[in-house]
Amino acid sequence: MLKEVVGFAPTISEHSGRLLHSSSPLTFRLSSISVFQYTWLFFLIIVSFEFSLVDAAHLYPNIIMPSQSGIDSSPSCTAMDPKLNYLPVIGILSHPGDGASGRLNNATNASYIAASYVKFVESAGARVIPLIYNEPIEVIFKKLNLVNGVLFTGGWAKQGLYYSVAEKIFKKILERNDAGDRFPLYAVCLGFEILSMIISKDKNILEPFNASYMASTLQFVDNVNIQGTVFQRFPHYLLEKLSTDCIVMQNHRFGISPESFGKNEELSNFFQILTTSSDEDNKVYVSTVHARDYPVTAFQWHPEKTAFEWGSSIIPHTEHAIEVTQHVANHLVSEARKSLNRPPAQKVLENLIYNYSPTFGGKAGKGFDEVYIFT
């Protein structure tokens, strides 16, 4: 029987039917060969690693390896552009109700902002100030002086006070841009419809479409120029995916056909059509437009839902769908960074949406996962 010795592991061999300890000459020679083999293998790994670094340098010629720099100093960081605002704030217009047909709050003066729009803006590096639609218009205009862009959300309200306030805000946005400030507007779903009504000067321009709770593609119009638009920085493969895969979320019962859009001179002069989509009945409607002379983009679809809403199994949550959300959010905030507005920091803090608490609405039914409710 072999002795158990601390720090010594005996080697057992079947050679000649004998047990050999690691101290035997044969075992020593075998161990030496093993050490040689492992040393040679280690040498090959090191050489292979060095060649891989050389290959990486050839693949990425702008990357300088430490051994190539010849300078032992701390890396220098690119200076920030003093013309850009790296603390952008987006104003989001609230919508009448609680987002859950009164199941969360049935106060007659209640309005809400779905938290998905807030997260959408925050994901691209901006903060949010709520523009509560039924506050005095003077208060809303004061808040407009604290933001660098605006977002109109989806919803159902197309008349009354909400329509009137949206129209006044839109006119202020145009005035700000005409005065030389880069001041973007995103209009989603209902926002698209209201802008179409305001710009066309025709409150009956909308047509019925069967596009409630459906995922769809986006078809780019012939000879479209996407330079300067929301799609400019999309990678080529993602533009292709938009045309072939149902990775955007639609949820609307009204819209505008390309024919009706083209027939209205005010609308076609203000906007250029970027994409169209088809509803459940294969009727084609305009799905994305970009203003010719202003940083205004309108979406009949919902870029915020794919990453931040989970209440419907129809909402696409694929990696490509999430990429679309990210690129669309990034474009809005990149435009807002160009705004010349530099409001007092304390005034911004006093009005940020962080002064309110979101309500979890997912258990209440088919509404939004979270909403900010204002009463």
UniProtKB/TrEMBL annotation:
Family designation: Belongs to the peptidase C26 family.
InterPro entries: Class_I_gatase-like (IPR029062), Pept_C26_g-glut_hydrolase (IPR015527), Peptidase_C26 (IPR011697)
Pfam families in the record: Peptidase_C26
Protein name: folate gamma-glutamyl hydrolase
Source organism of this protein record: Citrullus colocynthis (colocynth)
Reactions it catalyzes: (6S)-5,6,7,8-tetrahydrofolyl-(gamma-L-Glu)(n) + (n-1) H2O = (6S)-5,6,7,8-tetrahydrofolate + (n-1) L-glutamate
Top-level taxonomy: Eukaryota, Viridiplantae, Streptophyta, Embryophyta, Tracheophyta
Membrane-spanning intervals of the chain: none
UniProt-listed SUPFAM superfamilies: Class I glutamine amidotransferase-like
Entry EC no(s): 3.4.19.9
Cellular compartments annotated: Secreted, Extracellular space
Active site residues according to the UniProt entry: C189 (nucleophile), H302
